[in-house]
Structure formats: structure tokens, C-alpha cells
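Morning. Coffee machine broken again, so started the prediction first thing and wrote up yesterday's gels while waiting. Chain of 334 residues, entered below exactly as on the submission form.
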Amino acid sequence: MTPTAPTRALPAPDTRLTWLDRLRGRPRARTALAAALPVGWVTVLLFVPYLMLLIYSLRTLTPAGNLIPCRGLDCAWTLSNYQRLFGTAVYPATIGFSAKIAFSVTALSLLLAFPLAYLLAFKVKLHKNLMYMAVIIPLWVSYLVRAYAWKTILGQEGILNGLLTQLGLIREPLEFLLYSKWAVIIALTHIYTPFTLMPIYAVLEAIPASLKEASQDLYAGRFQTFFHVILPLALPGVLAGSTFAFVLSMGDFVAPQLLGGPDSALMVSNVVVSLFGVAYNWPLGAAMSVVVLALVILLLTLANALERRFDYRGEAGRRANADALGAVVAERRA
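Came back before lunch.
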């Protein structure tokens, strides 16, 4: 018999857990680690600057125009900047003027975006995605290019004046088209209409077809179906699009600077830039920024509450759907 080779004992398995094994066994730790980067990014880029604005708004300047230095936590905190902000009529009037411009842009954007979104959602059958891409393609173009394009169109030697002159409608170029609030409204409407259209189109696309069919089965006409079924269900998208247009246009800086002329000085963003970059009054500029930020947060909170109220996927929305169909039935019976 030939001698057999001695068998070598297998090494014992390593039962020690690595940090990855421990992490896999802790779902909360995995979630915290995954959220650390985005939460930290948002904190550094949003909350820290907002906190600095709030801190600067509570400080004051020396007679020479410099910030009063802090001694530890004692920075001579004061509310004088807010008192000055609301104690004169200039700054509230500036906020009101900016709100009027933003409201005009929002109204015009809705008038353009809602019919187009309705056509894309319900009427267009072929190449719907292509037409939708054609609507949002302007978002791919630089903001400055679009603003300068309107400066070229509305200028005294621009395209619009040249066309009107060639048609014999005017003899001299119209000077009021450029460097006015109307030029700002037109440019901002063109820039922010796609932002208004996208949420409206998304909501219209998500409306169940069964609701329209039920309305038609109840012998409701097109206008009755639109006003009692489509429009109430589209309100969340309308509110979202209106919020986008209002907030973005109220805080816009470039278009009023390029197209507004003397009126641009009455926009909130331009006043804040002047306070920071020209007058070097950082506390007052920070106070005005905090007030505008508070107004925007209040507007977003109200819009969010209204969107939840009119969302057909929620309980209140289901009741609204039932009320809408009930209204159609009652109107038909009457």
C-alpha cells in the first residue's frame, strides 16, 4: 500500500464583521449615510447663506459706513434696519412694484401656457412628444441670449420697428417699446412661460380618462366638461406654474437691468444689488432680502396647501371630483 499524503487542515472561516457588514444590518444608518451628502450640500448652499443674511440684517453700520465689530456674541444687535425698511414708503413701494410686474408676467404666462398645454394633452395625437420638446427647447438657450434677443427685437432699429416701418404703419421708430416695464414683462413672459406650462401639462396628462368619459355619458357638453371636470382637476398644475412664474420673475435681475431702463431701479433685486454693491449698506440689503424671502416662503406655503386641497389623488380631491360630476348632472337635469 502506498502511503497517503497527510491532509492539510482548512483554515477556519473569518467570522469578523467588517464595517460594511455592520452598515448593511442597520437600515437607519444606511439612510443617514446616503442622505448626508445631499443634506450637507443643501445646508452649505442654502441654510448657511440664509442664516448669514439674517445675522447681517440685525447688525448696523458706523457713521463711517463700516460694520460695527463684534465682541464675542455681542454684535450690537438691532432691528433698526427693519424699522427703516418699513418706516419709509420707498422700499414697500419697490416690493409692490415688483409684485405687480410678477403678477402681470404670471397672468400672461398662464394665458399662453394653459391653452397650449390643453392642446398638447388632449388634442394633439401625432408627434406629441416632439411638440412638447419644441415648447421647452428655449430653456436650453442661455438666459442672456434670450434677454438680448428681446433687446434686439424691441430696439429703435430692431426687428419690430423695422417691420412696422416697412408696412407703413409708423413713420418713426417707437421709442417706448424698449427700456420700459412693458419690455421687462414681455421678456419675462417669454422666459418663464415654459416653467408655467410644464406642471400644467403634467397635471392634464394625469387626469383619468374615465372622468371625461363619465361626463360625456351624462350628456355634458365640452364647456361643461371643461369648467366642471378639467379645470378643477388642473388647479394644482395651475398653482404650481403660477408659483414658478411669480417667484422667478419677482426676483429676476438681468431682464430689468437690460430692458427696464429707469424702471429697473424699482425692482427688488436691483435695489438689493445697489444696496450691496453701490451703497455698501449690507445690513439694509440683508434686511430687504430677508423680507422678500419671508414673502416667498409664505407664498410657497399657501400654494402647497392649495395644491394638496385640489389634488384629485387625495381625499379632498376625490370629494371635489364627486362634486364636479354632481354639478354636471344637476346642470343637465335643470
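The chain has one domain: 89-333. Going to sketch it on the whiteboard this afternoon.
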